[in-house]
Amino acid sequence: MIYYDQLPLSQDILQSLAELKIDYVFQPIFYPDGKTIYAYEALMRPVGMNVMDLIDEYTKLDKLHVLEVATFWGATEAYFLRGYKEKLSINSFPCECFTPEELETYREYFGKDENVLIIENLEYPHIDMEKSLKKRKIADVGLSEFALDDYGVGINDIGLVESLDPQIVKIDRSLLSGIDSNEEKQDNCRNIIETMHKIGKKVVVEGVETKEEFDYLVLLGADLFQGYYLGRPM
Q1: Do the beta carbons of residue 206 and residue 198 sit within 8 Å?
Q2: pLDDT value at position 222?
Q3: Mean pLDDT score of the chain, rounded to an integer?
């Protein structure tokens, strides 16, 4: 369990964070050898409820910014407590962004290690282009990477890739499930990977659950791999 009461944040934010009971688990993201870890994605696990229910509740209460702060601070704290050395990938709501004061405090508290953080811009609950572009600039300043999550689902499409210019694009599980035996998905994923490589993006394939899926996606040239077949959240 991560506790926020000792963190150097405003009293309003600390009071809101005190209401949260959240654990974090981490799922590895692998290179094509299936053994070497590129990064760990932090995944929020609220105590006693589903994470999507928590997000829905805080969206309705107009307190999603509290979850954004909780995620970055809590996940980073948990990452350092575990002693990981690989990159840290943190999910970020596309309608939220740190205030300048929160950003500076975060960097002062955790240090300014370069090229460690990956900011994953989600596709829910809705996008605020101004705030998403601010995060893109924050990633550049910190020499971090910016990723577009769940590509191919909802708003996360080629237009958003062109607008936000992420270094990493994560293909959603729904586009590659059973790809080893589905010609339509094979053609679609091949086209996505080739298109992203042409414009200089790294491609992560999410939700790889079988050896057959993994082997086929290696052949297609995906750069990074994530899923239960290679490593579960822990």
Answers
A1: no
A2: 98
A3: 93
Q: CA–CA separation, 150 vs 174, rounded Å? A: 9
The residue among 69, 80, 83, 87 whose CA lies nearest residue 22 is 69
CA-CA-CA-CA dihedral for 97, 101, 106, 108, to nearest 10: 150
Indicate the pairing of strand 22-30 with strand 37-46.
antiparallel
Q: pTM (2 decimals)?
A: 0.94
Q: Contact, 207 vs 173, CB < 8 A?
A: yes
Q: What is the pLDDT of residues 206-228, one digit of tens each?
A: 999 999 999 999 999 999 999 99
CA distances from 208 to 124, 158, 216, 218, 227 (A): 22, 22, 10, 11, 4
Tokens 């993006």 map to which residue?
Answer: 201
- The pLDDT value recorded for residue 112 is 65
Q: How far is CA 188 from CA 72, 101, 141, 194, 196, in A?
A: 33, 43, 34, 10, 12
